[in-house]
Design goal:
Layout lengths: L10 E7 L2 E8 L5 E8 L3 E10 L9 H20 L10 H13 L13 H17 L12 H5 L1 H6 L17 H20 L27 H16 L4 H20 L3 H5 L6 E3 L5 H4 L3 E5 L10 E5 L2 H10 L24 E2 L2 E5 L2 H19 L6 H14 L4 H8 L3 H7 L7 H17 L12 H4 L6 H29 L1
Antiparallel strand pairs: 1-2, 2-3, 3-4, 5-6, 6-7, 8-9
Helix pairs in contact: 2-3, 3-6, 7-8, 7-12, 8-11, 8-12, 8-13
Length: 496
């Protein structure tokens, strides 16, 4: 029912559909501009300006046009309600973006779970919604007036974004089309939220965006030569630290460099380790136990939400971190040889604050310094913290580690390893052949009952100072052998 007519609030009232009083136009006592009123079943009422100017002296001025505005709005309300949508005037796009992000934030879980998201995923959602705002030039569009044709063109716009000063809305350009696909996925979730909220009747369609294949997107990694070149350079870099804080941070970063490569953990998994996640590898031989141990990757720290044990030849490196923290080696205790009160503490912590993990900004600054020191060996390669995991996996492939075993250690699929990690620089052809053999191996074996040790890169290379030089010598030796054999054959022929 419409609100009863009250003269002190309404003047010059004109019904839109007489004798019905659920829609009419009127003027307020202090203005000559026509307003409209609509009663919306189950939602209340709506009052707004028609933006049509009337006259206090002549009621006919602007009446026809104002009635047209009111009737169009009335028809829109009825049409929305027939479609099962909310009909009342709704907020702008940006207000609902904030409500959507609030809903997504409530879904955050420590690790991957059904109907949950990680904190990293949420940060991605926030970034993607900022891009959507920039696409609308920061103009808060009313959802009723959304331009679906404009939304369709987003992928094409995104491919051309730059950080140039000439661009009125500078946006860092995407590295790949997969980045754009991730953004569009977030947009679809947002529009699905609007549909669930009965604010939209359908989801917009976006222009086709072809994703790159995994083999095209394979990550840069280090060769054995480059890896061995980095180690003495980074050792010297650690010693040059101007302050105790710098020496401590560099010690952590250098040993993280070695641990990531040898353990093949993801950086996110490594950074969240506590001392209690490190164990003695009692099932291994005494000789192996001198260097190898177990890293327990917890489900809440794993990217895939599954726990797994990792045999790693990194005892020495974790020992250096323990010493940098000032923790004396506890006698007659199993690895990691720390007091019980340290077991819940983060392995990678801030200087002077062992209870606080190193933040992302500190890790980023640390890698920037490492990159400055080692870029002379890397050339144009885009090497990151994650590239060290890639390096370790690539070398494991090259050293004939069964693919099934490797996939379990790394916490990833066999197919993914084949697609992404098969290509390790000069060993590309050999590695591809190995992977082919490994695929045949996996077809014969349904399940491995026992965990197998995957040696770290330092163990694989410990008898080779520089693998590149070794390969050159090997090739020269082979050529020399063939030459000798050729001369022997010629000598025998002359003797006859």
């Amino acid at each position: 029912m419409a609100r009863p007519y009250k003269g002190k609030f309404v003047k010059d009232k004109v019904l839109a559909f007489p004798p019905q009083e659920d829609c009419y136009i009127y003027k307020r006592p202090n203005t000559s501009v026509w307003q409209y009123f609509c009663s919306i079943p189950n939602e209340g009422e709506e009052r707004a300006t028609t933006k049509v100017k009337g006259s206090d002296d002549d009621i006919e001025v602007g009446k026809v046009l104002a009635l047209q505005v009111a009737r169009e709005r009335y028809y829109t309300i009825k049409s929305k309600q027939r479609d099962g949508l909310l009909a009342k005037r709704i907020k702008g796009l940006f207000e609902y973006i904030e409500l959507f992000l609030k809903e997504e934030q409530e879904r955050i879980a420590p690790f991957n779970q059904l109907d949950k998201i990680t904190a990293d995923t949420f940060r991605g959602r926030v970034l993607h919604m900022k891009l959507l705002k920039k696409y609308f030039k920061n103009k808060n569009e009313n959802i009723d007036n959304l331009n679906f044709d404009h939304l369709y063109n987003y992928p094409n716009w995104r491919k051309k974004t730059t950080c140039d000063l000439e661009n009125p809305i500078p946006v860092k350009p995407p590295k790949t089309n997969n980045t754009i696909s991730a953004e569009i996925s977030s947009f679809r979730l947002f529009f699905d939220y609007l549909i669930r909220s009965k604010l939209l009747g359908r989801r917009p369609i976006f222009a086709k965006n072809t994703r790159e294949k995994r083999r095209v997107l394979r990550r840069d990694c280090l060769t054995a030569l480059q890896y061995n070149q980095c180690r003495p350079t980074l050792r010297a870099w650690v010693k040059r630290g101007p302050t105790p804080t710098q020496i401590y941070n560099r010690t952590i970063f250098y040993n993280t460099f070695l641990i990531l490569t040898n353990s093949m953990l993801r950086p996110g998994e490594l950074n969240k380790l506590t001392w209690g996640d490190l164990e003695e590898a009692s099932a291994l031989s005494k000789e192996q136990q001198k260097r190898a141990h177990i890293i327990r990757v917890r489900a809440e720290t794993s990217k895939v939400g599954e726990s797994r044990p990792v045999f790693s030849y990194t005892k020495e490196y974790f020992g250096r971190i323990r010493e940098a923290l000032g923790i004396a080696k506890q006698p007659k205790t199993p690895f990691p040889h720390v007091p019980d009160e340290w077991l819940h503490m983060p392995v990678f912590s801030r200087y002077g604050h062992p209870e606080i993990p190193m933040g992302k900004g500190l890790w980023d600054r640390g890698w920037k310094e490492i990159k400055n020191e080692c870029m002379k060996y890397w050339g144009k390669k885009n090497v990151t913290w994650y590239s060290l995991r890639h390096t370790g996996i690539s070398f494991a492939c090259s050293n004939k580690v069964p693919m099934l075993t490797l996939s379990r250690v790394c916490g990833t699929g066999v197919k993914y390893i084949e697609d992404v990690y098969y290509h390790h620089e000069a060993e590309s052809r050999e590695t591809f052949e190995i992977l082919t053999q490994n695929r045949k191996f996996t077809e014969r074996v349904d399940k491995l009952k026992d965990d197998k040790v995957v040696a770290g890169i330092d163990t694989l290379l410990e008898d080779i100072d520089v693998l590149g030089e070794y390969q050159v010598k090997k090739e020269k030796s082979s050529q020399r052998k063939k030459l000798v054999e050729k001369k022997i054959v010629e000598h025998k022929r002359r003797g006859k």
